[in-house]
Amino acid sequence: MENKDIESANRTIDKEIEALNIMRKGLDDGLIKTLDLIQSIKGRVIVTGMGKSGHIGTKIAATLASTGTPSFFVHPAEASHGDLGMLTENDCVLAISNGGESKELSDIIVYCKRYGIPLIAMTKNPNSSLGKAGDYLLHLPDCGEACPLGLAPTSSTTATAVLGDILAVCLLERKGFSKTDFKQRHPGGKLGSILQKVSDLMHTGSEIPLVPDSADMKAAMLEMTSKMLGCVGIVDKENHLLGIITDGDLRRFMSENILQMKATDVMTRNPKVTTPDVLVAEAVNMMNNKKITQLFVIDKDNHPLGLIHLHDCLRAGVA
Q1: Model confidence over 225-263: pLDDT tens digits?
Q2: pTM of this prediction?
Q3: Which of 27, 45, 165, 177 makes an SS bond possible with 172, Cβ 3.0 to 4.6 Å?
Q4: What is the DSSP string of 84-107?
C-alpha cells in the first residue's frame, strides 16, 4: 500500500509540474499588459472567484497586498448583494475561473462593463464567457487535473496560485519593493522579528559603554560593570571608535597590574561593527560567524551610535 501511495504522490507531482511547464511556454504579452495595467491604476486590485478559484483568489489578494499592491478579495455571491459598492472606477478586477463559465461572476462582469472598470480574466479558455468579457487575459494551462477522476481542482489551482505569485513578484520588482517595505506590512510574528533592523534593538545614549582613549583599565572596568553589556568601547577626542575591550580580553590580560594598564593597551583595535540599517538577522549571522556576542553600531564617520548584544536578539526572537 505504501508503494502505491508514493506512486500516486509522484504522479500528482508530475502532473502539476506538467501544468506549470505548459504555463511557462504559454506566457505572452497578456501578462505584460496586465502588469502595466495594475501598475498604472490609482486604486486596488479586486480579486474574485468562485469555489476553489475563490480560495486561491483570496491568497492572491493577500500576497499582492503584502508586497505593495493594494488588493482585497470580493466573493462573487456577496458582490451581488451589495459588495459591488466596494469597487471604484480607480480599481481593476481580477476574475478567476478555470473554465471561464462561473455564472456567479456575471454580475461583477456586467458592473465592470457598465462603469468602465478594467477586467482581467484569468482562465484556461479564452473563448469562454469570462475570456471574451475580459479586457486583459491571463491564460491558465489546459492540461487536465492531477485528480485521477479529472474532477477535483488540483493542477489548475496550483497553476492559478503560481500565476498569482508571478503577478506579485513582477510588480514587487517593478516597484523596487524593499525589505523595509515588507517589514512595514509584516510587523508581527517570527517574520516581523526577522525583519527588524539593528536600530530597533540597539542600546543608545547613556546605555552605550564608552571610555576615552586616555582612560586606564580601572575606569574601563567600572564602565563595563555599570553598563552590563560585557564590553566597553574606546573612543578618541573626536568620538571615533578605536577599539573594544570584552570580558574575553580581560581574561587574556588578567594580571596583578591590570588596573594600572591603559585601556588602549588591552583593547582589540578595529573591532567588528555594523550600521543601524542592517537587518538584525544579518547582525546575528556576523556575531555567530565571528564568535562574538556584541557589535558596536557606527555611522559613516565611525562614530558609535549604539551597541547590539546577542542576548537582545534572543529576546526579540531573532537569534
Answers
A1: 999 998 999 999 999 999 999 988 888 777 777 887 899
A2: 0.66
A3: 177
A4: GGG--TT-EEEEE-SSS--GGGHH
Q: How far apart are CA 46 and CA 37, in angstroms?
A: 13
Q: Name the nearest CA neighbour of 292 among 247, 243, 240.
A: 247
pLDDT reading at 195 higher than 90: no
- Helical segments of the chain, H only: 2-26, 29-40, 52-66, 76-79, 106-115, 129-133, 155-175, 179-184, 189-194, 198-201, 217-227, 247-253, 263-266, 280-290, 310-315
In the three-class reduction of DSSP (H, G, I as helix; E, B as strand; rest coil), residue 216 is classed as: strand
Domains of the chain (ranges plus CATH)?
A: 2-177 (3.40.50.10490), 198-315 (3.10.580.10)
Q: Specify the residue for cell string 486590485.
A: 45
Alpha carbon 310 to chain centroid, angstroms = 23
* Cβ atoms within 10 Å of 297's Cβ, excluding its own: 24
Residue in the structure block whose three cell numbers are 479558455: 125
Residue carrying the nine cell digits 594598564: 261
Question: Do 100 and 90 contact (CB within 8 A), yes or no?
Answer: no
Burial 234-257 (b: 16+ CB within 10 A, else e): bbeeeeebbbbbbeebbeeeeeee
CA distance 105 to 79: 9
In a 13 Å sphere around the CA of 281, the CA atoms on its Cβ side amount to 9
Sign of the Cα torsion 79, 49, 175, 274 reads positive
Instruction: Dump pLDDT digits (tens) for 37-94.
Output: 999 999 999 999 999 999 999 999 999 998 889 999 999 999 988 899 999 999 999 9
Whole-number CA gyration radius for the chain:
29
Cα gap 271→289, rounded to integer Å: 14
